[in-house]
Amino acid sequence: MRGEKETLGVYLTGHPINRLKSELEALGATRLRGLNENGGGSRRGNERALTVAGLVVSLRTRNANRGGRIAFVTLDDGDERMELRIFPEVYEQHRSLIVEDAILLVRGSLGWDEFNQTTRLNVERVLDLDGARAERARRLQLRLNARQCAAGVLRELAGALAEHRADGRCAVWVEYVGSGARVELAFGSDWRVKPCEVLLRRLRELAGAEAVRLRYDPQPLTDRNAS
Fold first, then answer.
1. Residue 224 predicted with pLDDT over 70
2. Concatenated DSSP letters for the chain?
3. CATH code 2.40.50.140 region(s) in the chain
4. Does domain 2-129 have CATH number 2.40.50.140?
5. 87-138 confidence digits (pLDDT tens)
């Protein structure tokens, strides 16, 4: 997709964020649509915390008055764009993630920029998609049928899962659907995994895109910093 954008200036196969919209909403991201029009209800003295997500389409930095670099990032969620302001401490901590064409979830305070007469998010926390998944996913659910199990797919799925075992909170469940029967099986705690994009892509190749689902903790991202 990046090659499409660099060559043609547009994404012929669709905006990169489109396939992720439902997942980003499950992660607690607020859509940007409407936030720019009225400041999301935020004016001086009435800032509010929220999480937004999108594609980094531009990034610029400048020296901060008290040292370090302050970053201004334009985030695009496929419907709207918003400028983020990232102060030096947060930028230095997360600068490896804050690059053009990255998909990020950011937590911050939404306020009104009097000088530019626009909404701006002052960022307190930055996560890439894998980081957000690792923090919030509580269940990786696979839906399989009799044909897939008979074809040895289950063995290949187990191999893929084994490569991504991790100490964490993301449990693995298999939902088996057969003729007139439906059973859910929970893997043991030693089969907890890191739900990264590499693993999810492999599982979808084996079982199909609709057979792989992440279930998320309903609580929003916190404001605490995380690397």
1. no
2. -HHHHHHHSS-TT--TTGGGHHHHHHTTPPP-TTHHHHGGG--TT--EEEEEEEEEEEEEEEE-TTSSEEEEEEEE-SS-EEEEEE-HHHHHHHTTT--TT-EEEEEEEEEEETTTTEEEEEEEEEEEHHHHHHHHEEEEEEEEEHHHHHTTHHHHHHHHHHTTB-SSS-EEEEEEEETTEEEEEEPPGGG-B---HHHHHHHHHHH-GGGEEEEE-SSPPPSS---
3. 2-129
4. yes
5. 999 999 999 999 999 999 999 998 877 776 677 889 999 999 999 999 999 9
